Amino acid sequence: MTTFDQQQAGVQMTLAGLAYVDEGLAINKLKQALIQELLKTHYATQGLWSLVWGPVVHGWGDNLVFVAQHAQTAEYSIVLRGTVDQRGSIWEDVPTEQKTFPFFPASTAPDAVPKGKVSSHFLEAQQALLSGRDPDSGESLAQFFSRVGKQTDITIYVTGHSQGAGLVTLFVPWVLSQSASWDGKVNCVGYGFAPPTAGDPDFANWLSQHATSFQVINPLDVVPFGYAGLKDIVKDKVPEAVPELYRLAIDAAIGIAELAGHWQQPQVIIKLPQVQLPESIGYLDQVGAQHNHNSYLYLLDAPQTDSDPSILPKYR
């Protein structure tokens, strides 16, 4: 079993943070912006990772995926973008329904068909991204890895922040299901930062038993409490005592989640150190600050990216 590597987590969180770069740009300009960000040597990525597939953007939910490769180790990372400020992207986070997950590797359960359900919106997003093609080569993600998977051995990280972290838990088993037809051994490791719950207990238990996926959480970030732990936001005062108005919103979200089904985070949860902010900052601003991708980099002792710096260092 692969153990959690904080240095690698800093690298993967950096890649996840770069997925937010210049959102809304045309795909060719977005690609160039990503290439330039990956060249920066003052990030945890040290300029050693380069864009080798994508980016692909799915219009309905504004999801984005790209693949980066390390110049020295030849490791790959599938990078998934989190929620952006668009209606479809925000709607994707609402747990309205669960659907059976179709990408379990058959080899992990020779005596029974694996089972488990995931958020229908997350599944739709995954399927849309899998149908996308690299803007230059025309390859799908499956075709790209089928080609590079002919190497003797291959390591693939899957990373994302927020909504992207929820999708990490769907893409890890997808990689394992695809790799059955590849030539060499495959080491697939998921690093999901601030992940909302993606699936039901069966799905979470399968992932915990048959895959390596780290759910990396700031204990004062509300996002990882959705959908499975919504009640704990009020009980545990995350990130502080919850104002009455927002308690009503949380109660409504609990009702929506319960109507959709039962939810459970996978078992491998990595809790980061926490930085309590003063109440004077305001509840919603605290929520945003604790969830910020650069806040996760700071809590991982990794350099922040150049966009949207975290305020946590001011209060440590």
Could you characterize the architecture of this molecule?
The protein is α/β, with parallel strands linked by helices and about 325 residues long. Helix content is about 35%, strand content about 20%. Helix 1 runs antiparallel to helix 11 and helix 4 crosses helix 6. It is globular, with a radius of gyration of 19 Å. The protein starts with 5 loop residues before the first helix and ends in a 17-residue tail after the last helix. The model has no long low-confidence stretch (mean pLDDT about 95).
The 3D shape can be described as globular
Please count the beta strands (DSSP E, at least 2 residues each): 9
Q: Could you name the ranges where pLDDT drops below 50 across 5 or more consecutive residues?
A: none
Helices and strands: which structural class? alpha/beta
Order of SSEs? HHEEEHEEHHEHEHEHHEHH
> What portion of the residues fall into strands of 2 or more residues?
15-25%
Count of runs of 4 or more consecutive helical residues: 11
Kindly report the spatial arrangement of strands forming the biggest sheet: 1-2-3-6-7-8-9
What is the average per-residue confidence, as pLDDT, rounded to a whole number?
Answer: 93
Tell me the helix content: 25-40%
